[in-house]
Amino acid sequence: MADHETLPDQSPQVNISWSTSGRMWLMCFCAIIAVIQSAISDSGASIIVALSAVCAAVLAELAITYRKSKFAKIKDGSAVASALIFSLLLPNLIHPVYAVLGALFAMVVIKHSFGGLGSNWLNPAVGAWLFVRFSWPGAFLTALEGSPLRIIEESARGGGLPGAPMRLLQASEAAAAFGTALDGSVSGFLNNMFFSLVKAELPQGYVDLLISRFPGIIADRGLLALLVGTVIITAFGIGRSWLPVAYLGTFGVFVYIFGDLPFGGVLFDGDVLFALFSGGTIVAAFMLAAYPVSGAKSFAGVLAGAVTGGFLSWVFRYAGFEIYGAFFAIALVNALNPVLRFLEARIFFSQKPKTQGGAL
Fold this sequence. Notes:
The chain has 360 residues and is mainly alpha-helical. Helices cover 61% and strands 3% of the residues. A two-stranded antiparallel sheet has the order 1-2. The model is unreliable at 4-15 (pLDDT under 50).
């Protein structure tokens, strides 16, 4: 009787030439430069948060794996990368003890309770962020006081939205920090050199988002450096370069069509640039959604996950008024991965008879 074996119609593997350690350490570098940019304007608070998370993650990894692997697991960079990416999701002014607790949770519970690197279904950085966000919501929100998104959220919950996000901020107490001389110079240069060619204009305030001095998560405060990091990640091909594009494209389309409605606006007038430059959208697209372990394997499965993540990011942020809805969206997509992988097995894998060798 013929045996059967499951043969893939499409290869489920991620075709990446870099080693695991190479990818992890490159991700670390890209995260570090964002932390440094944020630290420049907060007297080093961002560095303290990041170092606290890294030290806790490395010590936890060492305690769990030293007996079997000595320092090999530390050298692969996965613990450091997870801790640094987690720190990007934290407010720069949060007490470092929460960074320590979150990093320990990421290593001990999310990573190693599921069997170590490659076995965890949830992105460790996202899981650690959820742990801190819901375990100590008061400390988390207090650290965000005065941040642009908190100003918008408080206005939304109070029913006092006078207009689109940027207009709201420019009408608030934070207005003095927008439209700086640097912002005006860069915006003017871009308008004269590029946008004037298509009869468009970049309003003031958006360049200031790239070099934010407001309280906020480190990823948003180090956005300019983070964008440089995304270019490096894409140039070195350590992941699927089209995946962040699919995620951001889906998110951007929904923001453009429906993003102005929560602010009393109209269809097809959403502020896409503000949506991309805030709320952790960039770090979600390039460092969380692109995490190969916690995702599907086939092209169609990965694309479905990216599109779903982009859509859910819009739902959480604009329909649910959760300012960091992108992180909730990534966590939910991670939770849906068993369904995606089941569908992959049914659609892209087939049962074919395995012929027996040898003469009768």
